[in-house]
Amino acid sequence: MSQPQTKGVDLGALGNAGMQSGLQETRKFPPPASISKSAHVKSMAEYDRLYKESIENPDKFWGERAGELHWFKKWDRVLEWNLPDAKWFVGGKTNLSYNCIDRQVQAGLGDKVAIVWEGEPYDAAKPVASELVRLTYNDLLREVSKFANVLKSLGVKKGEVVTLYMPMIPELAIAMLACARIGAPHSIIFGGFSASAIKDRVEDAKSKIIVTADGGYRRGKVVPLKAAVDEALTSTDVVKTVVVYDRVKGVGGFKFAMKAGRDHLWSDLMAKASDKCPAEPMDSEDLLFILYTSGSTGKPKGIMHTTGGYMVYTYLTSRYVFDLHGEDPAEMHWCTADIGWVTGHSYIVYGVLPNRVATLMFEGAPNQPANDRFWDIIQRHKVTKFYTAPTAIRAFMKWGEQEPKKHDLSSLKILGSVGEPINPEAWMWYHEHIGGKRCPIVDTWWQTETGGHMITPLPGATTTVPGSCTRPFFGIDVSIVNKDGQELPANAGGFLVIKKPWPSILRGILGDRERFLKTYWSEIKGCYFAGDGARRDLDGNFWVMGRVDDVINVSGHRLGTMEVESALVSHPSVAEAAVVGMPHEIKGTGIAAFVTLKTGKAPTEELKKELTNHVGHEIGAIAKPDQIRFTEALPKTRSGKIMRRLLRELASGQEVKGDTTTLEDFSILAKLRDTDEA
Ligand code: WTA
Asked: Per residue, what are the HEC states of 76-89?
């Protein structure tokens, strides 16, 4: 089958919100003196100086920063750049697991807390020890070394992909650090994805082993992860070995199946494993992990990140953007993302631990058992840096300011936002009710492909503006261009591109060089094309408007409209489907699906429910459409292209405007039938 064609990039997808308008947010928040005083970057003058150096002399800038970490062998050259292929710290040998753990133990910090974990069922009034875990760097070294030996004993070799499909438990961090320790790239699949998503990913990565858990807690219920793995493995024989961590331990009669010869219990394997496993010296450019993410076409793509550059970049962005101070025993970093997404990879584990700071992991939902769970966690663990998504902030706003008011949030110093543009109302609420008007907000723009923060305030230096991600990080050369690649003036909306390589730039898409070239390097010649629309204001601050391709951002999670369409048309009743984003109060963007049915199939409410669940089963709950509309035909241009802009306008309840003279059939508009209204 031929690869589906991309539907093309379209700045019009963004509407005119803020574009070309010259409208400027007037509220400005200078960095608080209390933060600037001890910050790694203390002023805008210092930022400007370092930024200039990082662009003009990347070898010096990055070489010095990389030297703060441990290398078995120093690199020969900082950067080799043959567009679009970047190699960083060429010839260097290092290990990220070593830099996350051993380097701290070597420095005498073995007793310092590395990971604090709280399970969803943890109840401070009736604490159960196993639901609140603190792992020191010594503990982590022991557990990671043991699991690294387990992987070796199961035959995992350097370079072989290990799939992790786990809840947010310490064993997930342990497993990923064990993979990095022996040089086996991991492919982490978010626990909310379905069996067929697991099948697609293990087949694409040719991954022979999956590490999973019986289940994990989410909103008071057990998510049966092992059952999803079992279902996935009925339709593929790539996977030969499954390791199962018994997280639920039979509570509430929860059971899972084990298949003899294929499945092994984590605890059985760990009981026999030695706790000594030296970290493998890895080449800077050895594959560290792959992470699947959605694009405009076809199936999710396996984004590849390598060892040295990703390590240095996530270490430095963690350090400067969250202003982490490993020497401060009070430092407690909490990123609320799931490790199944890039945010969790970079800012729960890989960027944070090399900074010698404690990182907090929470298994569950923010409203379990009550709407103040996050604020309760911040108070009890005295969290200093808190990083979450605008969709969560909008939910907190809805739940009301009385929830954070019940708790002492005075430990907080810096707040972060990621995943989608943050609306100024949410920014202000976050600032007032969580940050007590004293914490700088770092609104960090970046992507799975970029590995780390790209445009972001630095808390001790940048004057923040609600809704803007402000300035590029060191070494990041951003530009706003039109489709011919011409740089646009201030306040004009255009495509966001990056003109120079940075250390954690993706090295490719697993097994698909052509898609790598086409997606990122062919839209605008000579530049990395991010797929976002943005503008730069008169002060030099960036405003990201959203995706310009057929990717939608639902609750800060990336989904391809085509993925959802494929899931819909795989249902026996569906003839054709077109999926577009629509404004959604909490999710930012919701999913609207226009569906035509096969002859003889009736557009009923039951069918709508069935289709919604079908998408959930094919991809995962996050992909379930918010709205399904049955239509007799999809509006198409004379050349047969679906008129998406028209569908977007319909889905968002706006009047249909613009030129519709290319419609194949005018009457189609009248025929659009929403059974909600019927
Ligand atoms: C969007 C998540 C505006 C953007 C780290 C990007 C943002 C996509 C922001 C990447 C932000 C992420 N402001 N938009 N601060 N952060 N985005 O790969 O559209 O899951 O292209 O990486 O999220 O999503 P991904």
From this structure: CEEEEEECCEEEEE
| Residue 540 and residue 556 share a domain | no
| Residue from 290, 301, 342, 420 whose mutation best tests the ligand 1 pocket (most atoms within 8 A of CB) | 420
Residues 562 and 662 in one domain: yes
Q: What count of residues does the chain have?
A: 678
Distance (angstroms) between ligand 1 centre and the Cα of 419 equals: 4
Distance CA 84, CA 76 (A): 21
Residues 615 and 526 in one domain: no
Domain final residue pick, 491, 519, 547: 547
- At 640-663, the pLDDT tens digits run 888 888 898 888 886 666 655 554
Closest approach atom of ligand 1 to CA 293: 18
Residue 532, SS3 per DSSP:
strand
Same domain, 493 and 589: no
- d(C-alpha 72, C-alpha 67), whole Å: 11
Cα 386 to Cα 60: distance, rounded to the nearest angstrom? 32
Tell me, yes or no, whether 562 and 666 share the same domain. Answer: yes
Instruction: Give the CATH number for residue 555.
Output: 3.30.300.30
Looking at the 3D structure of the chain, how many domains does it have? 2
For the CA of 544, the closest atom of ligand 1 is 3
Q: Which residues, listed in sequence order, are joined to residue 560 by a DSSP beta bridge?
A: 551
Same domain flag for 576 and 611: yes
Distance CA 341, CA 553 (A): 13
Kindly state if the Cβ of 346 falls inside 6 Å of ligand 1.
Answer: no
Residue 650 in tokens:
């319909």
Is 582 in a helix, a strand, or coil? strand
Alpha-carbon span 49 to 547, nearest angstrom: 32
Residues 542 and 555 occupy one common structural domain: no
CATH at residue 528:
2.30.38.10
On whether residue 185 sits in a domain, the answer given is: no
User: Which residue segment(s) compose the domain that 633 sits in?
Assistant: 551-673
- pLDDT tens-digit readout, 403-443: 999 999 999 999 999 999 999 999 999 999 999 999 999 99
* Residue with CA closest to ligand 1 atom 25: 447
446 lines ligand 1 (CB under 6 A): yes
Ligand 1 pocket residue status of 434, Cβ below 6 Å = no
> For 117-127, what is each residue's pLDDT tens digit?
999 999 999 99
Residue 601 lies in a domain: yes
Distance 190 CA to ligand 1 centre (A): 17
In a shared domain, residues 615 and 515 = no
CB-ligand 1 contact for 506 (6 Å cutoff): no
Query: pLDDT digit string (tens) for 20-73?
Result: 444 566 899 999 999 999 999 999 999 999 999 999 999 999 999 999 999 999
